[in-house]
Amino acid sequence: MVVKAGEGGAQSKRNTMNRLLAAARVEFARKGLAGARVEEIARDAGVTKQLVYHYYNSKEGLFIAVLDESSDNIMSELVNLSVEELSPPVAMRAVLNHFFDQYRLDPFLGSLALEGIRYHDTHQTPRNHFLEMVPKLIAKLDAILLRGATSGDFRANINPRLLLASASLVTTGWFTNRYSMSALAGLDTDSEQGMATWRQYSADFVLASISLGAVKNADGM
């Protein structure tokens, strides 16, 4: 049955929007914003094309909604990770590994993230859910860094924002820049072995950059 505007109550509307977002997510990941067709999204979601425009005004509005939903899911999972009882190095590795695994386990996330990067590079975008969630994740990382500095595992005064930016590039680059990563690292970005190797290396790399022990060794102490 094709759902039309004005049909159903609040729960029905929520279910319809969830189906729309799910269908749009796949379409945008596979074809990009320019190549995606509202007609196909509506068909896959079991709604009319008019209903898509009723809820989201435009294809671009639907795309932004998809990006917001993905950002909410990614950031909420990271912020809510239970790592407070873990030692600082283990806690930081858990966050880094989870970040990597979000992309590893979702076949559409890398392509969708890359399309989102292109969009934000060329559009003046309003404040979005990703930016709203960033301070919470920074606070979580900062708490781990402070515990690590106190325990002697990490260097003091590490900027959590810079750490988050560099860690995200190292981990997600595997999924958003597959050609360069494969050519430079000599690894198959589609293989389980290649992903396992980079997952380990990327976490080791970030931890080495903040480790107090690494600085002492570099100084010959």
Automatic annotation (TrEMBL):
Superkingdom, taxonomy of origin: Bacteria
GN (gene name): nicS_2
PROSITE patterns assigned: HTH_TETR_2 (PS50977)
SUPFAM superfamilies per UniProt: Homeodomain-like, Tetracyclin repressor-like, C-terminal domain
Protein name: HTH-type transcriptional repressor NicS
DNA-binding keyword on record: yes
DNA-binding region, residues: 37-56
Molecular function via GO: DNA binding
Domain HTH tetR-type: 14-74
InterPro entries registered for this protein in UniProt: Homeodomain-like_sf, HTH-type_TetR-like_transc_reg, HTH_TetR, NicS_C, Tet_transcr_reg_TetR-rel_C_sf
Keywords attached to this entry: DNA-binding
Species assigned in the record: Pseudomonas fluorescens
